[in-house]
Amino acid sequence: MIKKILLIFIILLLTGCYDQKELNTIAIMTATEINKINNEYIINAQVINPQSSDKTINVQAPFIIYEGKGKTIHEAYRNIKNQSSRYLYPNHMEILIINQNLAKEDISQIIDFYLRIPDVRTEFYVLIGKTDNILSITTPIDDISATSILETMKTNNKYLGITNFVTFNEFANMNLNKNLEIILPSIEAINYNEESSTIKNTENTKIESLYKLDNLAIFKENKLLGYLTKEESITYNVLKNKAQAILITKECQDNKNKYITIEATEIKTDIKTKNKKIDIKIKMNGNINENECNIKLNNEKNIKNIEKEINEHIKNTISNSINNIRKKYNSDIFGFLDTIYKTDYNTYKQIKNNWYKNEYKNIKINIKSSINIIGKGNVLEGNNEKN
């Protein structure tokens, strides 16, 4: 009996995975960019350069970009084999950039493709590319990598609240849920010519191109419609609880050429529906970061007045953004219908078939904002009063 157990144990130790691959036979892919031109898919796959860490070899580029073309996405990936003998390993992919040319078509095929690949972990992030060949950009300062893009997105979301993170799983859920519309962050390359560029590297060489994160891309029925404005992008992130912080800049009442800036943090939005009405309640804390207005911040009454003005400003901004989106795109990116489905199913049954034709455009939306200013930034105020 013991011999049989030992034999089974030895067999298990000798057994390997049928599809395992040695490290020196794979190319670890970190990002993919997909475009479609003249009915042909174009794949740019960014892979880690295995020689970049070898100090005995004078190789500076940490990444290699492979391009493949084909009538299908799979064929385009497969044709990369013409450039590299290594197996393209997608398990560590961090970024997928879908070019806007392709996004204007039905992008369900992209979702279906990646759901079918067993080697892909579907926690990578999805963006819309407003320009071509973003992953191919190189500058004297930095290479455009998945990591650098993610770090830029993290900074933008933390301090500005304009962009957001959408994983492939969330992207697929937006596609599969009939009550949701797709919305994705966008990215584009920026060109700097010899005359206009003021950015230089240490060798005084002008940078030819960089990238920047742009406003959110709005879809309807899986097709790209356009891009939100900055205010509309912030509104979306606030309502969906995806904004860590936002800046609120408002003109002074006593001087139209002066401003007060408040950084809002700990933003929490609650959306409820009842009887064909949407109630939105927004709570946040605020820090006064800059005050050009003639307001004494050590006066509690003045702080309450500022809170009241900021709440009205937020309410108007959110309301205008929602109405502009409803009027221009008629796309329910906020998921109001999905909220009704989850909280008021009887109403949902009454309006679902007529949602975009009539209900969404006319549904009443009540907005309530409540900001609590906890940082007054009045360090010099006592000293100013002595003058």
Structure description:
The protein has 387 residues and is of the alpha/beta class. It contains 12 helices and 13 strands. Strands 1, 2, 3, 4, 5, 6, 7, 8 and 9 form a 9-stranded mixed beta sheet that branches. The C terminus is likely disordered.
Task: Identify the notable features of this structure and list them briefly.
nine-stranded mixed beta sheet; 387 residues; globular; alpha/beta; 13 strands
SSE blueprint:
Elements: H1 2-14, E1 26-37, E2 40-48, E3 63-70, H2 73-78, E4 87-89, E5 95-99, H3 100-103, H4 108-116, E6 125-129, H5 146-159, H6 168-176, E7 183-191, E8 209-220, E9 223-227, H7 230-239, E10 245-251, E11 259-274, E12 277-291, H8 300-328, H9 336-343, H10 345-351, H11 355-362, E13 364-375, H12 381-386
Helix pairs in contact: 9-10
- Principal-axes geometry comes out as globular
Low-pLDDT ranges: 54-59, 194-207, 380-387
Overall pLDDT confidence: 84
Largest sheet: 9 strands, mixed
Q: How many strands appear in the DSSP assignment?
A: 13
The fraction of residues in strands falls at 25-35%
Task: Give the class from helix and strand content and strand pairing.
Answer: alpha/beta
Element string (H = helix, E = strand): HEEEHEEHHEHHEEEHEEEHHHHEH
Rg is: 26 Å
Percent in helix: 25-40%
Q: So how many helices?
A: 12
- What separation lies between the terminal Cα atoms? 96 Å
In short:
This protein is of the alpha/beta class. The protein has 12 helices and 13 strands.
